[in-house]
Structure formats: C-alpha cells, structure tokens
Specification:
The structure holds 2 protein chains of 2 kinds. By secondary structure, chain A is an all-beta fold. Chain A has a single domain, classed as Clam (outer membrane lipoprotein receptor (LolB), chain A). Chain A has 1 helix and 14 strands. Chain A has a 13-stranded antiparallel beta sheet with strand order 6-5-4-3-2-1-13-12-11-10-9-8-7, with no helix packed on it. Chain A is globular and about 50 Å long. Chain B starts with a helix and ends with a strand. Chain B has a single domain, classed as Porin. Chain B is globular, with a radius of gyration of 23 Å. Chain B is an all-beta fold. Classes of the chains: A mainly beta, B mainly beta. At the A-B interface, strand 2, strand 6 and strand 14 of A face strand 1 and strand 10 of B.
C-alpha cells in the first residue's frame, strides 16, 4: 500500500507500508490491524498495532526498530493526523455501524459513478472525542459500496472529502477500492491511499495481532 | 458452564476474514544508514591526557534482513562501525544483530546475537538487562552491544513468555585516555576481572513474561548471571579496572494508559552487588494534542528515581533524582521532534540537561542535534568528574 501526501502546491511525498486487518463480524467489537512502514527509510520497520474499539479509545502499540522498543501509546487523539496525512486515525478504523447514529437524506446519482444511484445518509459520530460534528456518506444502491464521504468539523464547516475509486472484486465476493482520495478543503492538501493487491483469508489469526508479535516482525 | 463452552464459544465468535496488501515473497532487503557526526565540547578538558579537539566521526550501520515467503524464517545481520578522530576507544565496531529466527504460530526460536529491550520509563532503563551498554557510543546509556543468545519464546492467550540463555558476556566499553566523558583515572578496560571463574564464558540465564490486560501493560523478568554494571578497583599503575559480579535480579515494569496519560513504573530487586537492594523509577507522560490549533503534540514527562544500593555496588547517578521533560512532536512530513529533559539530584543539587532535536530532509536524509550539559556538580558529587564535558553534537545521516 502506498500513501501519497500532497501539499497545496502539489509537491508529493510517498510512504510505502504493509497493512493487514483481522475483521470481526460482531458489530460491538472493533477490528484489529497492523501497519508496517517500509519508507521513508529512517522509519522502515516501524509498526503500529491497533485493537479498535467502537465507542472508546483504541488500544495501540508502536514498535520502534531503532531501539527494539514496544510502546503502548495513548489513542485518545483519534481526531489527530495519521502519520502527517490528511487522514485522521478515526477515518482509518473501519466504518463500523455502531459508531454513528444516522439520518436518511435522499437518493441521487452517485458521485464518482453517475450510472449508479446512491443513498445519501447523514451520520453523527457517537465517540465523544471525534473531530467531526457530522459526515455525509454516499452509498450506492446496487453494490452497497461507499462512494464518497464529506466530513464536517466541530464548527460544522466542510473540512474534507473522501472519494472511493477503482472498486475491484476479490474471490467473487469482497469489493475493495484500489484508491482512496482524501481532499482537505481548508488547507488544499490531499492524501491518496493506493492499495496494492489485496489477499483474503491468508491464514492470519488472532495470534498475528497480539502485542507479542511485534517482537518477531523485524 | 465449563471452561471449554466459554472459550470455544469465544474462538468461534472470531471471524476468519483477514486481509492484507503487498504480501511479500521471501527476499533479502539491504537497508541502514551512513552518518557523519561532529561533537564540540564547550569547555576545555579537565583531566591530563584528554583531547580538547572537536570530535569528528564517521558511522556505518548497514542492515541485511531476510524473511522467507511463509514468514517462518528470518535472518538479520547488522554490523556497526564508528571511526573517530580523537579517542581510539571511541573508534569501535560491533555486531548489533546476527541471528536466525524460526517463527511458528505458538512459539519462536532465535539463535545468534540480538538486541532486546524491556521497560517503559523514559529517564532510566532499570529493568533492561540483557544487553551491555555501548557507553562510548553515547553517555545516555541507550545504545547497546549485540548479545549472543539462544532465545525461546511462546505466545499464549495469557501472554508471551521468553527464556534466554546467554553463553558469552560482553564487557562495557569506556573512553580512552584521550577521550572525554571519563573519570580522572583512566580505565583499564581490557583487563576486567570477574567473580565467576568462567569469566566472560559464564552462562547467563533470563526469563521474561509480558502481556496486557485492558489499560495495563505488564512485564515480569528474572536474570541470573554476570551483572552488566561493573565496580572498579584501582590498579598499582593508577587505573580503574572493571570488576563484574554475579547477580540475581527480579524486575517489574508496568504501564497504565488512560485518556492522554501514560503512568509508568519500573522496579528491581538485585542480589549480588553489595547488600540486596531495591530500586525504582516511576512517573507519567501526559500529552496535549493539537496544541494552539496546530498539528503539534506536546508531551510532559515527570519521573522519580530511587535506588537503595550501598557503596559496594556499582555507582549510579539515579539514586534520588527527579526527571522532568517535554516532547514536542510537529507531526509534519519531516517528522520533526524535539525532546528536552533535566535530571535533578535534590540531595546534591547537581543536574544533567539533555536536548535532542531531529528532522528528516527529503526521503533519505535526516539531521539530529544533541546537547548535554552538567551543572552544579561540585567536587565529590556524582557528576563532578564529567563536569567539563558539556557538548553539542550534530549528526547528518543518509538512509538507504
């Protein structure tokens, strides 16, 4: 996976990383994820392990390869920037149903896919420290895929937009976007997440997402 | 309900759906860095023979890493070398890592030289005992020499247990006669004496348990073998000769993470260095996020250091000290970060000030400034012998 950071004048910085997730079908339990950075070279091997919670702060550990140190970190700051990108930590932790209360708005042609019809839904974060007052999400009525999300900040002004592009189907069932584009309307900065090939059911288990595994990765 | 009904239900309740990206094939990766470093001392040397010159160093630290396609086999080889113009003892090399590791679902085995870190506190690493300190590399005792070992670990639902057998002891290195940051008497580094008749071949043994429960992270450890800290005997020629004793040490490290607070405690009980004693370091780190409506985070650190050792034990400066510090993370693309800290001995009034700042340039370069100052160290106090060794250091690294 690549993360492309772009400033207002279009200058790019690229981060390469590997990303794995253990999804939990229980709507009251968050996913577990592991991100390992390959570039920039000076932080190569740095890993972030997250046990997401629905309405509380997540459990998070970082592995710092320079000192072989594993550090539990505070995740209170879910609205903070994810590694200086335009994504906040809370944008990353999966779009769990129980994280919001919802308000149905309308149907209209989908942004990024005009041939499809989208349900437009307003949603209000239940996590009290969320950086957002509300979000507006477009979900198509054919494949039930997220197409776009507008993020409104605490003062309720439009802050960011996230576009989900290049959906591809894996193993005849799992649809995943190959490109997620986050545009910050207030700073002019943007971040692209370019996903490499996904692989599913690749034998990862709970054991691959425990704190102790950080000692064996690098 | 019996235990299986409960546990088996939990296991079935967990999804089998996992996914990842960029799963790599078995391959070798070559990474690492080369750096140049300038260290300027702000005062003339105190002791006869010490150089007043600015130190210029070249550092090479390549990393060779192999991982098999099934992620079960790993090889690491990380040599390190520093060349310095002033002190022949500071020019040194080491094998930081050279090991083979086999990783299975429930256990892993490592054979070779490795670096292991235990602990949570910022100002001192009491519990961390596997690796010898690379003291000429940095007086902050956060650089370590590679330790030869056989390591066997098992990961269970209730935590990770690791056993270490260490067949060979690494001696601590010290500044040479020309070097700064040494005591008045020069060190007789390479003629160390040992309590064990087997000298550096005494097999050392350690056991570690670590896990987390909710907001608590806990580590328990036990070590038996040659202690990494030396005492010194004065030789007839007037040199300090290191002596290494056999010790037993039990350690606890604990962190409670809540809201923006990290509460930390490390504690040890050690037998074999004078009378059996306890030592502890504890405190907190509190973070203010997105300060002044910027992306910057400010962390405030406060720790207290206690040490109950007597005069027959190796000298420690962390006996009744308060550490206060601040960490400013800019959260910019260059990962700019500044850390400033001060350790204050409230009995002797001497203090140690440390400032570190680093920033990346482009994708592959990084610059780091470190400044260290000692104040108020009068004759007879812990830091007196190093009182004129304040320095400012600039390092430029090229990562590849």
């Amino acid at each position: 996976m690549k993360m492309i950071l772009r400033n207002a004048s279009g200058q790019e910085n690229i981060r390469d990383m590997r990303f794995s997730v253990l999804e939990d079908p229980n709507p009251d339990v968050g996913d577990k994820s592991l991100i390992i950075f390959d570039t920039p070279a000076d932080i190569s091997g740095t890993a972030l392990l997250s046990h997401a919670k629905i309405l509380e702060a997540d459990d998070q550990w970082v592995f710092l390869p320079e000192d072989e140190k594993i550090k539990r970190i505070s995740s209170k700051n879910k609205s903070g920037s994810f590694f200086s990108s335009e994504f906040a930590y809370e944008d990353f932790t999966a779009q769990e149903l129980n994280k919001y209360k919802y308000n149905y708005l309308r149907q209209e042609p989908c942004p990024n896919a005009a041939e499809l019809t989208c349900d437009v839904v307003e949603r209000f974060p239940l996590y009290e420290r969320s950086g957002y007052a509300r979000q507006i999400a477009w979900v198509d009525t054919t494949y039930f895929q997220s197409r776009k999300i507008d993020f409104y900040n605490r003062r309720d002004s439009l802050m960011k937009s996230l576009d989900f592009l290049d959906y591809k189907q894996y193993e005849d069932k799992y649809w995943r976007p190959q490109l997620m584009k986050m545009q910050n309307h207030q700073t002019g900065k943007s971040t692209d997440l370019v996903y490499g090939p996904y692989s599913f059911n690749n034998g990862l288990s709970e054991n691959d997402f425990v704190k102790g595994v950080l000692e064996t990765l690098y | 309900m019996n235990l299986c009904q409960l546990l088996c239900g939990l296991v079935v309740g967990v999804s089998a759906l996992t996914f990842g990206t960029d799963v790599q094939a078995g391959d070798w990766r070559i990474k690492g860095f080369a750096a140049t470093e300038i260290r300027a001392y702000t005062q003339d040397a105190k002791w006869a023979g010490q150089s007043d010159n600015t130190e210029i160093s070249v550092i090479l630290n390549p990393e060779f890493r192999y991982k098999s396609e099934d992620r079960k086999h790993r090889i690491n080889f990380i040599p390190f070398v520093r060349g310095t113009n002033t002190d022949g003892e500071r020019s040194h090399g080491d094998i930081r890592e050279a090991y083979y590791m086999y990783i299975d679902d429930k256990f892993d085995v490592l054979i070779g030289a490795n670096k292991v870190f235990w602990g949570v506190t910022e100002s001192q690493h009491l519990v961390n005992i596997i690796n010898q300190v690379d003291l000429v590399e940095d007086p902050d005792q956060e650089d370590y020499l590679g330790q030869p070992m056989l390591q066997i670990a098992t990961q269970q639902d209730w935590g990770r247990v690791t056993a270490y057998v260490m067949p060979y002891f690494r001696e601590r290195n010290f500044a040479g006669v020309e070097g700064r940051l040494r005591a008045q008497l020069p060190y007789d580094t390479h003629k160390a004496t040992y309590e064990s008749g087997a000298e550096e071949w005494h097999p050392d043994f350690a056991l570690r348990y670590s896990h987390y429960m909710g907001d608590f992270d806990i580590g328990l450890s036990y070590f038996h073998g040659t202690g990494r800290e030396p005492t010194f005997n004065v030789t007839p020629e007037g040199k300090l000769r290191p002596h290494y004793s056999l010790i037993n040490q039990a350690g606890l490290d604990l962190q409670y993470t809540t809201d923006a607070w990290l509460w930390k405690l490390e504690s040890i009980i050690r037998e074999g260095h004078g009378k059996t004693f306890a030592a502890a370091v504890g405190g907190f780190e509190y973070s203010f996020y997105q300060i002044f409506k910027s992306d910057m985070d400010l962390g405030i650190l406060l720790e207290y250091q206690y040490d109950g050792r007597d005069d027959d034990a190796p000298i420690t400066i962390a006996n009744n000290d308060i550490f206060a510090g601040a960490r400013l993370a800019f959260n910019d693309i260059q990962d700019t970060e500044i850390l400033a800290g001060m350790t204050f001995d409230h009995e002797n009034q001497d203090s140690f000030i440390n400032i570190e700042a680093e920033r990346r340039f482009g994708d592959n370069f990084s610059a780091e400034i470190r400044a260290r100052f000692i104040t108020g160290a009068d004759e007879g106090e812990d830091l007196y012998e190093f009182a004129r060794d304040d320095y400012i250091q600039l390092r430029l690294s090229r990562y590849f």
